[in-house]
Amino acid sequence: MRTPASSxxxxxxxxxxxxxxxxxxxxVAQSSPDGMLRGVIDMxxxxxxxxxxxxxxxxxxxxxxxxxxxxxxxEQADRLQYQTGEGxxxxxxxxxxxxxxxxxxxxxxxxxxxxxxxGLGIGASISVHLFTNAALGSLNMYSLHPREFTDTDIxxxxxIAAQASVVLAYTRNQQNLWRTIDARNLIGxxxxxxxxxxxxxAEKAFxxxxxxxxxxxxxxxxxxxQLAATGYLPGLDDAPLPxxxxx
Length: 247
What we know:
CATH topology of the largest domain: Beta-Lactamase
CATH superfamily of the largest domain: GAF domain
Helix content: 40-55%
Order of helices and strands: HHEEHHEHEEHHH
Distance between the termini: 64 Å
Structural class: alpha+beta
């Protein structure tokens, strides 16, 4: 049975390398991106100086979102940062550092967020930048009571975040891979619909999709998803029959 390397009430200890390695292997071994992210959260709570944890990830257009959380309380604390536009997890996303809040109710750096987080029942927190060759997000560790984080606590948080960065980067790659696979499958389904409806070859069906996509300024993957879901595209059924240049 594994025991936490540090807790909110116990003394801090150095994290055994084998414990972290085991946790990372367990996270990556999950069959889905959600499972991998959940593995990171479990690793943080089991081995870090916190009672709960979350991951903020940078999405498209620099949008921030909580992609994993150990409970709804910390997810709400994250959401308040996105809404108020301030907070340690936001700062940690864009700054290569660690943001430590030993007493949430007394912190004055984030005057809108900190009092609301304290009102939720958050006593203290550590947020650490997650990155590989680019900013990925932040790992946020929350304690339910004020806590004087030691140097060892902070170093442990850095170690966990370094490993979490590896898992998060792998997860993002997996998500991109599955999005690509899903898009290809949808395009294949859309081609099949056109082939059956109009008696087209696969090549000609793809040409129809591409022309429609260009003419209507719609991404091919979005177009394919619409056709696969509804079996219909506006204007397509009113076009000349295949062989006489449909669309």
